[in-house]
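seq as requested:
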Amino acid sequence: QRSAAQVVGLASAMPVSTLHISGFPPDATDRELENFCRFLPGYVISKSSLNRGQPKLWVRFDSPDNANAALPFIDGQPFDFRVPAAALWGAFAKTDLDPEKLRPRQDEPGRNGSSSHPPSLPPQEAKMVPPPARGSDSQPPYEGSSAPWQTNAATQSWKRGSDRSEPVPWNKRSRTEGQSTDELDTLVVMRPMDMDMNDRLLHDYFLQVEGYCGLRMGGANCFVKMANPLLARAAVATATQSGLQAELAKTNMNLHQATHVVEGM
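struct tokens:
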């Protein structure tokens, strides 16, 4: 028969599938934290703590391997790209969360008057998966000194008006002129709120997609600006594989219209 100390030692040596994450800003809400990892492969359930000191989060995965694979997407990454110096700290928890003891909180008020809402599908049935990693954040997503959407003398002529006098912004071009799919660098995500995805969560999602520049909501849909048409088509495929309803927009969005923009754009 094992002593109590031996039992504790045996439990600590067993593989753990739960991550402990800290470093969130003080104004983070339950809803933001508990939806933070829901698109990572193997996600099961999460639990946040806002009551004592800095906000903390525990996230349970379906296996230690998936928990370990999620660490590079969390540890050392900024929660808010507007404050890049505030990095998250992620590590394996001492014990696993028990999904049977946790229930989504529907009526409990969160911090700052917000409330926690469960996702529309149970975590084990969620079909969305994260986009492929963009690689190190230290590498610029584009080559060259200027952003791809910035015009220059060589590319501006085909964007001019009929009298070739003044350049016509993307969002002011005539619909009769039209744009072929080879020119479209903007995609539209249809009715993302049906999946409990607001503009902030979509921004966090697309920050992981190569070539993402910014987005804005337009009615029930969300318009997402990419660096070029090739990356826009790739983003449509990535978003579709993640369970979002996405397609190329009919016209390109001007980045100045975006309400969420990648840092440094």
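Residues 4 and 251 are 67 Å apart (CA to CA).
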